[in-house]
Specification:
globular, two-stranded antiparallel ribbon
């Protein structure tokens, strides 16, 4: 055959042997070229923010793909590190919000591909029921969304609430083994340290947050407050891994040194809540582990230590302002700026917040007021009173009530309070069962106690801190508790019902470990 005829014949009979992989490669090539052109235009226009967002999105997608089925661990990392927010379309979005939204999208995709399972547990049922009630409240009191040009105080908190619920849905449907728990414990310890370093460097080196300071004393404990979080997390880990008898012992001096170092850090932070939780941790740990003799010894030791600080201040030494603030609820010769925080006076700040919340509750006890700004928020407020209560009014408008229960009642009505109470009781029961049914020396046992202590302290702090947006802050932890419980139950079922493999006419029985790896 002549060359021309050969090539003509070949052209008339093209090969159709094109597989799916080749089609995917061509598609990725076209997408890559289009993306490169888009980035090139952004660089040409000197739109550095868009370029940074594109690079960040690529990094996030790469990380999600590399993590595979462990993608959900981005949520604990983001929540514990509390890294800087990212400006998108003129709005600031936190890393936690982005991670929750991305992980929920991945979960739904994997669910559609049958790589995930959705398990409707009793706790899930009540959380979804509470979510439907919040939707009802939103319909009664609609506000705009920030990305549509509405006020930032509009539906932003609603978005955060549902992202928190999404985080619970994602995490609670996972099965967590010893390997995952080991990484979660590392995140629990390391992430708060990273957050504290970022806060200190950002304030001291780059001046981040200095423009918000009105009180000259604020500069003494603004960045220092971030120091309380790692101290809180390390102490909870310490008493989850070791009982008080193995911490307050001359033989284990290193562990005792860790505790007192964290106590000093909590004092230095100026955060009363951090110091209070830190001092309560050995107490609660001793009760859970039934070490009552060490409980009495610890109470005496803690009382002596606090007594020395209170009596010594003003008589033998002058404590820094932020240390005085940590001890503000104890009677002492404190700085005049601390007087409003002491037990001898009144906590005027929180009293005002409670009064504002009660006013809303009395007006709408059943369905609340919803979240958002209304003209009546400023009705009857004189210029003088606004200046005096500017902080309280701004926090009330933003629904940051510093009281979880009153905040839920004021914003979403009495049913929301009841839903939250039922959810917390169920979570506590589940966390206690995890604690009782795991070995104290295993990673799963240690992390189960960490979560149990966290929920206990969250409930204890709910009267003086928190808002109606509890889903964003704690539901991911609730999800971890449910995931561990589901993993324990699944492992127990597999262990009690051995799997059989047919080999000819014989059967081989295989047992399973307590926690899947």
């Amino acid at each position: 055959m002549a060359p021309a005829a050969y090539f003509a014949g070949y052209a008339m009979k093209p090969s159709l042997n094109v597989n799916m992989l080749q089609l995917q490669q061509v598609g990725m090539l076209l997408l890559g070229l289009g993306f490169a052109a888009f980035v090139g235009v952004a660089i040409g226009n000197q739109d550095t923010r868009l370029v940074a967002l594109i690079i960040g999105a690529l990094v996030a997608i790469t990380v999600l793909l590399r993590m595979g089925k462990h993608y959900w661990m981005l949520i604990p990392v983001a929540m514990m590190t509390d890294l800087p927010a990212i400006p998108i379309a003129g709005r600031v979005v936190s890393l936690a919000e982005l991670s929750m939204g991305a992980c929920f999208a991945v979960f739904m995709l994997r669910l559609a591909m049958r790589r995930e399972k959705f398990r409707l547990t009793p706790l899930m049922f009540f959380i979804l029921l509470g979510a439907l009630w919040i939707v009802f409240i939103y319909v009664r009191n609609p506000v705009g969304f920030a990305f549509l040009g509405a006020s930032t105080v509009g539906a932003r908190d609603y978005q955060r609430i549902f992202l928190g619920i999404c985080s619970f849905i994602v995490i609670s449907n996972q099965r967590i083994g010893d390997r995952e728990v080991k990484w979660l414990i590392i995140v629990w310890i390391v992430a708060p340290i990273i957050a504290a370093i970022y806060a200190a460097v950002g304030f001291l080196v780059f001046g981040m947050g200095t423009e918000l300071l009105a009180d000259p004393n604020e500069g003494e404990y603004t960045w220092h407050q971030a120091m309380g979080f790692p101290a809180y997390c390390i102490v909870i880990w310490l008493f989850s891994k070791y009982p008080p008898s193995q911490v307050f012992s001359p033989v284990t001096f290193g562990r005792m040194a860790i505790f007192f170092s964290c106590a000093a850090l909590a004092l230095y932070s100026g955060k009363r809540a951090a110091l209070g939780v830190l001092m309560l941790t050995p107490f609660v740990s001793a009760v859970l582990r039934k070490e009552y003799a060490h409980l009495v010894a610890y109470i005496v030791l803690a009382a002596c230590g606090l007594g020395i600080l209170v009596i010594g201040h003003g008589n033998f030494v002058e404590l820094p302002f932020r240390v005085q603030r940590s001890l503000a609820n104890l009677p002492g010769q404190w700085d005049p700026g601390i007087k409003a925080m002491t037990a001898e006076g009144t906590d005027s700040f929180r009293d005002t917040m409670r009064e504002l919340a009660w006013n809303r509750i009395k007006a709408n006890p059943l369905v609340g007021r919803g979240i958002g700004i209304r003209p009546e928020d400023f009705a009857g407020v004189s210029t003088e009173n606004f200046i005096k209560q500017e902080v309280e009014l701004n926090l009330a408008i933003g629904s940051s009530w510093h009281n979880t229960w009153l905040g839920l009642w004021a914003d979403f009505g009495l049913p929301s309070v009841l839903f939250h109470a039922v959810i917390v009781i169920m979570v506590l029961f589940c966390a206690m069962r995890n604690f009782q049914h795991t070995s104290r020396t295993s990673n799963v046992g240690v992390f189960s106690m960490i979560l149990l202590l966290t929920v206990i302290f969250s409930v204890l702090r709910s009267y003086t801190s928190g808002s109606s947006n509890v889903a964003m802050s704690v539901y991911w932890q609730f999800g971890l508790i449910v995931a561990i419980a589901g993993s324990l139950a699944a492992s127990k079922d597999r262990k009690s019902t051995p799997r059989t493999t047919d080999i000819g006419s014989k059967y081989v029985h295989r047992s399973h470990e307590l926690i899947p790896s």
